[in-house]
Specification:
Length: about 400
């Protein structure tokens, strides 16, 4: 059984939990190690007790660099008693910095897999900070044997453009992890009645511009539109989030949820899925394919995307969804204000007519991912044997 040492930036991140579920469902054995954004150590992630590398703070890059340096100095002690892995899988750049130290701790030649699902704005800067970070990534990437990323635009706009990682690339989209049911079957059930028409904004809530746009739109819609938010609001981006939402008559925040367990229930309570993010406008936000795109599509929520983004290109290829021509209240009103039950049903049926595998992955996809990692490990062992023989 393939043993993966999974190094992560935040063991409390729901996306980390989903990847753990996926790797375990694919047949891998995991050791999970990483930082946390919680006050106390995380005791359990899907039956695993993570190796705690200490706390970090969201948005505090300098603090995170210090935490990485501290963890690098003590990584041997942190991983004491852990069996040598077949693969070291590093999620995000800061964990790639620890991957080589981990290999040294095990006196191992285990290949490194780099999982990069966002392109941070700092690495895109044209000043010394950005140039330096890209240089560090290229240096650390010399030992990378496989790059996992979630959007083809990340490859085109960053990895190929800057020549960052000279390794094979595996695209693993942010699809809904659907292990409890047959992912090939479309969802059942009648459409949600409207008005009011409900827009769901779920996941990492970090975009103040989206919040303000949705607030203004619903405030001026006369109660015909409402917005339901669930997930983890970034209080570093809008510390007044809860007060702002409470002051708006047609916005509501319903707290956290479990992914994938709660997905069907929360998306069947909304008509539309907000698949727009201006957090890093023109860069990461333009290039990503967000989780909520796939989650909403799986359960028939009509996605709303911004023109000239990778998400809009994806929806255009599928022939579904609504695309805003510009990021304004007027454009959102233009797209939605004439909504009727008949028009909504046409939009919803278009989403449901897509192959459900467009939106979700099942156990076969989990096995395929682990099989790819096994090939990387096998090729590495064969290469090491060949080098010794030579």
């Amino acid at each position: 059984m393939l043993h993966v040492l999974y190094l992560v930036h935040d063991v409390s991140d729901p996306a980390v939990r989903r990847r753990v579920i996926m790797l375990k469902a694919g047949g891998a054995r995991l050791t999970l190690a990483g930082f946390r954004r919680t006050a106390e150590p995380v005791e359990d992630v899907e039956g695993l007790k993570p190796v705690d590398l200490g706390p970090t703070r969201d948005g505090r890059f300098a603090q995170r660099l210090g935490a990485v340096a501290k963890a690098a100095a003590s990584i041997s002690a942190s991983l004491k008693g852990v069996p040598a892995p077949d693969i070291v899988m590093a999620r995000n750049l800061e964990m790639l910095a620890l991957a080589q130290r981990a290999r040294t701790a095990f006196a191992s030649s285990a290949p490194v897999v780099y999982e990069c699902l966002d392109i941070h704005r700092l690495v895109l800067r044209e000043d010394l900070v950005g140039i330096g970070l890209r240089g560090v990534e290229r240096m650390l990437g010399r030992n990378v044997k496989l790059l996992l990323t979630s959007s083809p635009a990340f490859v085109r706009q960053y990895f190929q453009r800057f020549g960052q990682i000279d390794a094979p690339i595996e695209l693993v989209e942010n699809k809904l992890l659907d292990l409890a049911t047959d992912a090939a079957q479309p969802p059942s059930g009648p459409p949600l009645a409207g008005p009011p028409w409900r827009i769901g904004w779920f996941g990492a809530l970090r975009c103040r511009r989206s919040l303000e746009l949705l607030a203004a739109f619903t405030r001026n819609s006369g109660g015909r539109f409402e917005v339901t938010m669930r997930g983890r609001p970034s209080l570093t981006e809008f510390p007044d989030f809860h007060g702002f939402v409470a002051s708006e008559p047609h916005l509501q925040f319903m707290g956290a949820y479990r992914n994938p367990e709660d997905m069907a229930g929360i998306y069947r309570q909304v008509h539309f899925s907000w698949a727009i993010d201006f957090f890093e406008d023109g860069q990461n936000s333009k290039w990503l394919l967000p989780n909520r795109l796939y989650e909403g599509g799986r359960f028939g929520a009509v996605p709303i995307a911004m023109a000239e983004t990778e998400t809009a290109s994806f929806l255009d290829r599928q022939g579904v969804g609504l695309i805003l021509r510009e990021p304004t209240q007027e454009a959102l009103t233009e797209a939605l204000s004439g909504m009727t039950a008949e028009r909504y049903e046409v939009l919803r049926r278009g989403v449901l007519a897509r192959d459900p595998k467009t939106w979700s992955c099942d156990r076969s996809d989990c096995r395929a991912l682990v099989a790819t990692l096994e090939r990387v490990a096998s090729d590495s062992r064969a290469g090491a044997t060949g080098a010794i023989a030579a």
